[in-house]
Every structure is written in C-alpha cells, then in structure tokens.
Specification:
By secondary structure, the chain is an alpha/beta fold. It has one domain (2-217): Metallo-beta-lactamase, Chain A. Helix content is 18%, strand content 30%. The protein contains 4 helices and 13 strands. It has a 6-stranded mixed β-sheet, covered by helices on one side. The longest helix has 15 residues, at 152-166.
Amino acid sequence: MLLKQIFTEKIAHSSYMFAAKSSCAVIYPRRDIQVYLDEARAMGVSITHILQKHLHADFVSGHMDLAPATGAPIYVPRSAECAFDHVPLSEEDTVNIANLVLGVVETPGHTPEYVVYVVKDRARSDGPVAVFTGDTLFVGDVGRPDLFPDMAGELAKKLYRSLHDKLMTLPDHCADAPWQPNARAPLATNGSTTLRSTSGTKKNSKGYAAGSGPFFEVPRG
C-alpha cells in the first residue's frame, strides 16, 4: 500500500492518494485536480476511486472535476442524498481497491451524514492498518458538532458515541489520516502503512490522537 498526503496550506486541507498495484483512490480531493493526475502518472497507477466523507461547507471539493477526468466513480454517504452520479455508502459497506479493503463506518457528529474509512491491507494482515477520520478525529482534538446550530446538542452526543463506540475500538497502531492535522506538519510514510510525523514518532496513530485530547476523558453518560 502506497499512501501520499496532499496538503493545501492556506485552507489547512489534507487529501490523500493511496494505491495498490495499478489502482489508486483519492480521498477528500481539493478543487485543483491536476496534482492528483500528475501524482498518479508519476506512481504509474490509474485513479479508480474517489471517496468523500460528508457534504463540504468549508471548501470547494474537486470530485466533480476529477470524476470525468479519470472515469472513476464518486463514493459518498448514502444519507447525504446527493443528486449527482455516485455510489452510495452505508455502515458496513466495503470498497475494494486491489488488495485493499475499505470498510465504511458511519460516524455522525461533525455532520449528520459523516463516514470514515477503515483500511485493511490483505497483503499484510487481516486487521485494520489505517483509518481516514476526516473531521471526526484530529491529533489531540475532535471535529466541531455545531455547524448546524439547531442540532448542536444532538450532534455532540452522536459525535461522542461515534468516537467512543466506534473509533476507540480500533487498534491503537492504526494510522490516523485526518482532514486537518493540528500539528500542520507534513506527514510521511516510513515504508509501512503507519503515518509518522517528520520527527519519526508515532504522532499520527489513532492511539496517540485519541489519547491526547480532553474530549476522551469525559465519562460516559
């Protein structure tokens, strides 16, 4: 599994490309899609999947441009009820990309329709190796539940459950690939699927991200 982060500094946006064999997926694409076309060409792969996590309100996504440029389908949460051509995803659905299996986990909280993608690399093991948490879990923080003011209390409760009942059950070694890494430091792979900070420490694992934020110390209720 080859994983590459594309970071857009002025809007603190991280998108990701991950490839296996000759196939490649782009997750959370930015508006300027040329970077993905160039990177795919350099890696010798074809973009075959485009994945979104929720409906965006804070930046213009590039999925509508990337799809016709590559012929790749767009995968979005079913509950988003999108009008454009897409593959709808719900809890426990899977997306297969060569030897990679992406499991869909519904994690409402930041928005009502939010999903994250848990990655298993069948060439390595049967267990999860990474999770694309988007705006649900950052390094030392969690997503805002107040984007819909009338639903803020309800979404805060759902976010808590999404974190504690779903993401916290994943192994601590899972690489956490958020949409906005708080440290603003570029991430790199060290030859494995575990994202590391440039200092070499495992500061982008799910265990580190979850263990460094006060939100996780709140008792269940």
